[in-house]
Input
Amino acid sequence: MLPRRIDRAAAHAPDNNQLLAALPASACVALFDAMEPVALPLGQVLYEPDVPMAFAYFPTTAGVSLHYVGRNGESVELAGVGREGLIGIPLFMGGDTTCSSAVVHTAGQAWRLARAPLLQAFAQDGPLRPLLLRYTQSLITQISQNAACHRHHSIEQQLSRWLLQAVDRSPASEIVITQDLVAGMLGVRRESVTQAAGLLQRAGHISYRRGHITVLDHQALQRSACECYAVVKQECARLLPMGATPA
Output
């Protein structure tokens, strides 16, 4: 099932995606003519393992998890993507498919671009190609750092890091998501997320009610997180100095 289309007038402007905002106006206008706005509901699967991709997505308000699910059904998030990036790197890297899936974890909106115009723009000697390659390196950093985080840091630290990253990609401080989904992102049991969320709530860092998590104290939550949050954020700022980093 493809995401449903929405009226351009009702959609968030393309430059609300920070990669598109980093492009010169002429390049952005050319891409905009080939793009269409789509609504991405919670749980929407944008691509699946080993299935050729047809579209790239530039989120504006949606949050997407690049997710790996093992044969035993256990899952873990490899990386998250929001308004700072795009979904569909294998399209311009030449792979067309990947072993992971992309699942919407925060409902919202995005701009969708078909494979052919993306490849055409990427092949040109313009600003898009170096920008996407630098973004790809920043995403590799996130995937690598997340792997270390899952191995070496506590559930409370991992949850703090994940919430900070999710809020950075969102226009609001509230995240609409269940503990089951968060547990799937972190690759842990739901009870572990419940315990960690309770600790953060009692400390005044977050507010939690069923399906809704609000970050109350961003700086305090950073102190509860491991160094992985700062490492990824700093590397993204280094590689994408034109503003295509989470706010």
